[in-house]
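Worked Example 4.2. Consider the chain below.
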Amino acid sequence: MSLELRFWGVRGSIACPSASHTGYGGNTSCLEVTAGGTSIILDAGTGIRPLGHSLMERGIRSAHLLLTHSHWDHINGFPFFAPGFAKGHDFQVLAGHLKNGSIHEILAGQMTQPTFPVPLEAMQANLNFQDFDAGEDFIIAPGVRVKTTPLNHPNGATGYRIEHGGKSICYITDTEHLPGKPDQNILSLVEGTDLMIYDSTYTEEEFPAKVGWGHSTWEEAIRLSKAANVKKLAIFHHDPEHDDVFMDKVAAQAREVWQGAMVAKEGLIFRF
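Applying the procedure from the previous section yields the following structure tokens:
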């Protein structure tokens, strides 16, 4: 297999580990991609905590952490990432949305008293922080290319396309669409991809009351998928108010509109 992806956190906004959310999961955004022998982590929401334990159990000591942005639900699992505290581990931390400041400052800032008792300096792993401008492309390992694009989100965000062995995965969250005007940045990035993970926080009925909040809908995800010849769509970044019953309805409705659509849930694995 060229690419493998596993979902460790699929929620937006805030973790919701309740009985009514167990079917899809309550952790916030975190995905694991394996491209050949390279491990890539997408976002550091609360899902990075169980991922960290899994990495240690599997003896994986290095990875690239690609952050879409630095809102809490995408970084608040980082202080609980066990491999980060282990000597002999190595992590490259990259972000492309910051016009002022750096991702090192952001992650250090959330681990500062009085809001958090353990400083970033307590992490014993080799941590290399790197900022770039969304829109840049780069190679992170032999045969593993990452393409990026800016997204429409308060304070900025970055969309990613990971390519290896002729296959690709695109990660598009958090972003807000303009009704009737497909985002050309996104269309260009996801064209022909094997899998697009897309911010589908709201339904079209909910969206008008949330304009300006920086999120999109599963209906827009399907429109983009069809326009860009996407092979499979994973509906992602579920609103914490959307319990298992609600998400089951979304899954059924989406499949009726387009057979390539499904709803992301914790533990789900794709292999290409």
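The chain has one domain: 3-271. The first strand starts at residue 3 and ends at 9. Compare this with Example 4.1 before moving on.
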